[in-house]
Amino acid sequence: MAQTPSPLQEQILAIDIGATNIKFCHVNQQGALLRTVRRRPTPYPCSPARLVEFLVERITKSGCRRVGVGFPGEFRDGQVVRPGNLARPGGVTTDVDPELEGRWIGYPLQEELRHVTRRDVRIVNDATMAALGCCDGNGVEVVLTLGTGLGLAVCDGGALRKVRDVGAEIFRDDKTFDQLVGERGRVVGEERWNGVVVEVVERFSSEFGATSVHLAGGNARRVTPHLFDSLPVRVVIDGNEAPMHGAARLFSDDLTNATTVRVAP
Question: Which residues span the domain enclosing 40?
Answer without folding.
Answer: 7-128
